[in-house]
Design brief:
- By secondary structure, the protein is of the alpha/beta class.
- It is 44% helix and 18% strand.
- The chain contains 19 helices and 18 strands.
- A hairpin with a 2-residue loop joins strand 8 and strand 9.
- The longest helix has 39 residues.
- The chain starts with a strand and ends with a helix.
- About 3% of the residues have low confidence.
């Protein structure tokens, strides 16, 4: 679908990529990986035609459509959510207008035998078939399904987009791209503005409905669940691994070890050549051999070793005061903004040393409760912060509190104590501030870079209650591993607001779920909570049957009151036939729901996520289920009509 040959991109002296070649095929699910600044976003822009390479060829067939979601985009504020999403169907709207115009012409003409009339009939037939093949009749239903899958409520669809935050408006843009069903999807950090439920919905959509996908993401669980191939940008090269991310990590480690051995052998060879040249440079009898060595040395192409992986760096929080037994106690805590209740009757107790997660859809009050605990906003009820508590708080706005005149190194050097000061450069490298980046002043850093710097600063301060609000948004995977290990080894208490399942896995032992104005406590890790949620959804029938607990049975037919016996008998016969059809349809729906649950459970096992046999069966079964539900609704209506 997309063929890239000898791609060359330069920004300055050193090329970003050189001589890169690869092909994106139908049904490919490609993770694009590499350190920050390696050129992942640039490559996506080149693939969608927004940026031109310095050299090389990107071949895309004329009939191939591409959908591109950048990290940042200019958003419009002059429509409702529904109207903005409907822009995805602009080609369908144009085609409908054309079909309607052709239909009008046919209605007005009477020269039924003429060649031009027959040509018009043929054109109308072709365009109408094309219109129907585009699924035009189901556009609105699909639009609602997609927006709700990405976290919108039905009541949100008529609201102006200007009422929503940038994150929610990015969801609308993502919905528009998905609704267009392009041949190739290019997604740059699509999960940044999504909660766990929306991420899982997107994973399922990509598995079932997408054709080819190339994505950049630092969400390990997401790319492992979605992708089956990994393209790594490293040392100006693009290396193609035909495996998902976790397998790529193993292969990359082996490859780097091979590179290192080859590099060491080459350095040894270079050293021996130089020693020979220096030793015999002025001996006439060795002049020919010296010249040969000089030429050999000039021809050597230096072996580059992949960037050093700092994920093995161990970082430990400094010693802190022992806190009281219960750092946070909430009793009947309530928060209202005007007439809107964010949450009420919040009762929770967090014990010393516990690591807990706050999860739930955006806007359900996770950050609001954090602000209540921090004492930043007023609330109703009783909230007690325990004895000797020293809070370390990380939120996106913390990054704005850094001294802009200091360098990155000075910012960390000012808070580092003891022997940790000897490792500042290693720590900065692990959080993507290696080399010259440590000499940058804070005032020239991007928002994401400031957030990372604020995170490092927090890691070096002696605190006993950590409150982290979306700490992983601007971190790459090695940085997240360093942070996760540090929190795991932390002696104090931690509250983590996050939608990153892989980060929370093995880190938290309790999950607080925010939703519907309530906060519910779940004991166990993040995947245990997700499993319970999944089982609850299945038992509640939220699988395409409009939230009901399976199909709602129609009321029992009432006996006809007509005196005519033959009519009565015919009516009874039709009733029995209709009842039988409804029951048969319900049985099929039940069987398919049961099989979908089995397939869901199988696909939740990481090693099965890319099993195309299971994915295909899931997709086929889901489609058959949707069709059978529509059939059941039709049969039920017929039965009610007979009644």
């Amino acid at each position: 679908m997309i063929s890239v040959e000898s791609l060359h991109v330069e920004f300055g002296i050193k090329p970003l990529f050189a001589n890169a070649s690869f092909v994106v095929n139908d049904r490919d699910r490609i993770a694009l990986v590499g350190k920050n600044g390696a050129g992942k976003s640039t490559l996506l822009k080149i693939l969608c035609g927004q940026q031109k390479p310095t050299g090389g060829v990107v071949s895309i067939p004329n009939d191939t459509t591409i959908g591109y979601l950048p990290q940042v985009m200019i958003l419009q504020d002059d429509t409702t959510v529904r109207q903005e999403a409907q822009k995805a169907f602009s080609n369908v709207t144009e085609l409908k207008a054309e079909v309607d115009a052709l239909n009008q012409q046919l209605a007005e003409r009477t020269d039924y035998e003429s060649e031009s009339y027959l040509a018009l009939v043929e054109k109308f037939t072709l365009e109408h078939e094309r219109y129907m093949m585009m699924g035009a009749e189901n556009c609105e239903a699909e639009l609602e399904r997609t927006l709700m899958g990405l976290g919108f409520e039905r009541s949100d669809l008529e609201r102006p987009t200007s009422e929503f935050s940038g994150g929610w408006r990015m969801r609308i843009e993502l919905a528009k791209i998905l609704l267009q069903k392009p041949d190739v999807l290019l997604l740059d950090e699509p999960t940044n503005h999504l909660d766990i439920e929306s991420i899982q919905w997107l994973e399922q959509w990509l598995a079932q409905s997408a054709k080819a996908v190339v994505l950049v993401s630092h969400d390990r669980a997401f790319i492992n669940n979605v992708t089956n191939r990994t393209l790594e940008i490293s040392c100006g090269q693009i290396i193609d691994y035909k495996v998902k991310y976790d397998e790529y990590v193993v292969l990359r480690k082996e490859r780097r070890e091979q590179q290192l051995r080859a590099y060491e052998n080459q350095q040894k060879e270079i050293q021996e050549m130089r020693q020979f040249i220096e030793r015999f440079r002025y001996q006439a009898t060795k002049a020919v051999q010296v010249q040969q060595k000089v030429k050999q040395l000039e021809k050597i192409v230096p072996i580059e070793v992949d960037e050093v992986d700092n994920s093995a760096l161990h970082l430990k929080f400094p010693p802190c005061l022992r806190s009281g037994d219960y750092p946070v106690i909430c009793e009947d805590v309530r928060k209202d903004y005007g007439a809107h209740t964010v949450f009420s009757n919040v009762n929770l107790t967090i014990k010393r040393g516990e690591k807990v997660a706050f999860v739930g859809k955006n806007g359900e009050g996770k950050s609001t409760l954090v602000k209540c605990i921090m004492g930043e906003i007023p609330f109703d009820g009783h909230l007690k912060v325990g004895h000797n508590i020293q809070i370390g708080y990380f939120a996106q706005n913390q990054a704005q509190l850094l001294d802009e005149e200091l360098t990155v190194f000075q910012t960390i050097d000012n808070v580092a104590k003891g022997e940790i000061r000897l490792r500042i450069n290693d720590i900065l490298g692990a959080f993507m501030f290696g080399g010259e980046a440590s000499d940058k002043k804070v005032k020239v850093l991007s928002g994401g870079e400031r957030s990372r710097l604020a995170m490092i600063r927090l890691l070096l301060e002696p605190v006993n209650l950590l409150i982290l609000d979306e700490p992983t948004n601007h971190l790459d995977m090695p940085s997240k591993d360093v942070l996760k290990e540090a929190i795991r080894a932390f002696d104090g208490t931690a509250i983590i607001v996050s939608h990153d399942r892989e980060f929370l896995d093995g880190l938290v032992s309790k999950v607080y779920e925010f939703g519907g104005g309530k906060v519910r406590e779940h004991l166990g890790g993040i995947y245990e909570w997700l499993r319970k949620e999944h089982e609850a959804q299945i038992s509640n029938g939220s699988n395409g049957l409009n939230g009901s607990n399976g199909p709602i049975k129609p009321t029992k037919p009432i006996n006809p009151t007509k005196n005519d016996y033959a009519t009565h008998k015919e009516q009874q016969k039709r009733l029995r036939k209709a009842e039988k059809a409804v029951e048969e349809s319900e049985r099929k729906i039940s069987d398919m729901e049961r099989r979908l649950k089995e397939l869901d459970d199988l696909l939740m096992i990481p090693e099965n996520a890319a099993d195309m046999t299971l994915v295909t069966e899931y997709t086929t079964t889901k489609k058959a289920l949707d069709e059978e539900v529509e059939r059941w609704e039709r049969l039920s209506e017929e039965l009610e009509t007979i009644n």
